[in-house]
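[INFO] parsing input record for DUF3243 domain-containing protein
[DEBUG] input buffer:
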Amino acid sequence: MVTVLKSFDKWKQFLGERVNMAEHAGMSEETVAKLAYQIGEFLADKIDPENKEERILKDLWDAGDDQEQKVLARLMVKMVAKEA
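[DEBUG] output buffer:
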């Protein structure tokens, strides 16, 4: 996973593939959004951003409250789902 984080495009592709897998496995949009939020929390707390796009996302995450972070997670899911 660490190499995936070095390129934002690779990260989006990786996330998009996982979102598609979750949807094909029958997970609801709400469940996928909750998982994206949990991943976002983990990344914000444990992983130092590897590129400028990840830095912007971390800064947005850190600036937001719980509700805004959930919106950001949902937007990321929507973004990668459209590209996949």
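[INFO] The chain has a mean pLDDT of 88.
[INFO] shutting down worker
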